[in-house]
Amino acid sequence: MNRPNLTGQRLVAVFLFGCVMFNYPLIALFNKTGKVFEIPLLYFYIFTVWAMLIGLMAWAIERRED
């Protein structure tokens, strides 16, 4: 498989993963009154998943074939 096609497939997979992670049932699980590091649980979840998606996109784009 050539490199641009594989990178595109990885980015589509990251996009679909993001759609699942920001879908209603998972968001509703974290809509509680608890706090993590003095941050409301829902905000902590949203920003953690957001940072994870950015990291996965960077990994998918910069990954080198050996």
Can you tell me about this structure?
It is a single chain. The chain has 66 residues and is mainly alpha-helical. It has one domain. Helices cover 71% and strands 6% of the residues. The protein has 3 helices and 2 strands; from the N terminus they run ααββα. A two-stranded antiparallel ribbon has the order 1-2. The protein is elongated. The chain starts with a helix and ends with a helix. The mean pLDDT is 88.
Low-confidence stretches: none
Shape: elongated
Global structural class: mainly alpha
**What is the count of distinct domains?**
1
- End-to-end gap: 13 Å
Query: What order do the SSEs take from the amino end to the carboxyl end, as H and E?
Result: HHEEH
Mean pLDDT value: 88
Q: Please give the radius of gyration in angstroms.
A: 15 Å
Total helices: the number is: 3
- Spatial order of strands in the largest sheet: 1-2
Write the layout of secondary structure elements.
Blueprint: H1 3-21, H2 24-29, E1 35-36, E2 39-40, H3 41-62
Antiparallel strand pairs: 1-2
Helix pairs in contact: 1-3
Q: Can you describe this structure in just a few lines?
A:
The protein is mainly alpha-helical and 66 residues long. It is built from 3 helices and 2 strands.
Question: What key attributes describe this structure?
Answer:
two-stranded antiparallel sheet; mainly alpha; single chain; 71% helix; 66 residues; elongated
